[in-house]
Amino acid sequence: VVSTQSTGVSDGIVSATEDEQDIEERDGETLKEDTVKYVTPVQDVKNDPLGLEANPNEVKLEDEVTEESTIGEEQAEKSVNTVSDQGKVMPAVEEEDVLKDQDDKEPSVKEQEEQKDNENSLETAGKSSDVEIISSSEGNTGNQLGENISGSDEDRTSPDAVPNAATEPEYSVSHYFAHSLKILIEGAVQCRLSEEISHISDDPILVVGRCLPHIMPHVLLNKREELLPVILCLAVQHPDPTTRDSLLHLLFNLVKKPDFDQRQIIRAGCQAFARSVDRRRLEEELLPQCWEQISDKFVERRLLVAETCGTLSSHFSVDVCSSLILSILKQVLDDKDESVRESAVKNLSLVITRIYNQDKTSDLLQILKSSLHDNSSKVQQTSLRFYLPALSSWLLSRGQYLHTCYNLLLQQLLASIQSTSARYTSIYLQSLNVSSVFVLAGLLKPLVTDCPGEAMTESTDESHLGLLDPCVILSVSKSQYKSVLSNFNTRIVQQSLPESVKTQTDWFGGTAVPCIVQCIKSVKDKSLLADFTKLLTQMQTVIGRTFVQQVVRPCLLEHVTDARVLPVYCAGILAVNEEDRAELREFLAETLNQYA
């Protein structure tokens, strides 16, 4: 629809009006192709019989516009009707042309005839019909005239105009059909990643929990420990038990062959998990992972199992430590690799401190025996350094059970000395030295409460002390230990020891010392005599000279004529303290005179 203002019409548009007679004479003639255009001011359309409303400020082109563009294309438009500025409707084309433009809302033939016959009646109506010309252009779309007459979407009355979203009609095709058609054309992406993308609005814990197992295999082996915080966070907070189980499986399988540093990081992660969940979840979710790794083909994985059990022993209940954890480590103790067995012995030392069931004494003593009989010297030394002190401390906390371990070691030592191979003599002699410290410290334990002083705590700066230091064993300071030792020696002299201490003292002098003397007399390898001398010297260091003089010395003195007992007696009893040196010289002089 081409519209212009009724006032200020372009100079290129020529307005022509003719009276009715001239129009009738020209009726039927072919209009010349020129640039003549018929315009009429828009009149009031309240009474417009055609029902066409127009803006009073608009005028409409009614003739065909023929213009030759700069690129040689032609556009021709034919005018259908002309309207006079006086309100007269004047036909400008033949009847056939009018019929062709009926779809464009042009007046019918009958109306044209009525307008010819009743001109006066139309003038009485006071209004003329504005004729809207709809032109179709097949020429250059860049033509200036085409741009001027294009109009806006709101001015268009064509049924092809796009409706607004609010008035958009409902599709007659079903939604399911349209969706199926879209899938067939675009293709349905059937893969895990597309499924995850479609659920990105889920809880981030759920999304990351599903995606992490697929991400980890593509992370460099030496950088996988960087995923540990993510794995632990998900394992703690994820609501699904199955997903948590898979995440903890990832934790233990983070690296195919974890080295020592990587195992340390994983153990630290297990500790963080233990601190973040309750004990029930820890035992139900983490322990099955340890069971799965017991028979793994990689040594590093089996090492991780042993180390994890020891690290988490303080977080497990005493019942679990006494049963499940102990069973796992006993099974690992039979591993074919010595490093795994060594780790099992070391971590059993930690588990022992969490066992409160006295029925486990025989099991723990059997573990001690098997570890001391191990073919690997590393396993044996680990048992001496960690397991035996832990077991002795555990037995010490249970009173009379300590002598059970000491008797076992003495019997095994004597049996090894008297055997032909004497394979385990040295290791049992070292074990006896370790256990003696705890036995003698046990004699002092009941007197600790009688000597008040500053007790040793975790914050006490005694980190330089070893596991065999009496202060560590009794959990007392050095000053308090000296006070306890002085009180003990005084009571021995006065024979005023508590009944429980007297019973243990009598057992040591009446059973343990005679067995030691029997072992000394049975030694075939004289190099072992130095170890027995060390044993007696250590006794004086731990419990004092008075105890050794009154409890140990009498038994040795009875067998001093033996060639093996004599040097041990002189070096281990008389040569230790300065006050005994004079007696040593006299004893040696008498002995030499007897042999002379």
Could you give the topology of this structure?
Blueprint: E1 3-5, H1 20-25, E2 58-60, E3 67-68, E4 74-75, E5 81-83, E6 89-91, H2 95-100, H3 109-117, H4 119-125, H5 144-148, H6 175-186, H7 192-197, H8 204-215, H9 228-237, H10 241-252, H11 260-276, H12 279-293, H13 299-311, H14 318-332, H15 338-352, H16 361-372, H17 377-396, H18 402-418, H19 425-444, H20 470-474, H21 478-494, H22 499-522, H23 529-543, H24 545-558, H25 565-574, H26 581-595
Antiparallel strand pairs: 1-2, 3-4, 5-6
Describe what this molecule looks like in 3D.
With 596 residues, the protein is mainly α. The chain has 26 helices and six strands. It has helices at residues 20-25, 95-100, 109-117, 119-125, 144-148, 175-186, 192-197, 204-215, 228-237, 241-252, 260-276, 279-293, 299-311, 318-332, 338-352, 361-372, 377-396, 402-418, 425-444, 470-474, 478-494, 499-522, 529-543, 545-558, 565-574, 581-595, and strands at 3-5, 58-60, 67-68, 74-75, 81-83, 89-91. A hairpin with a 5-residue loop joins strand 5 and strand 6 (89-91). The longest helix is centred in the C-terminal third of the chain and has 24 residues, at 499-522. The chain is elongated.
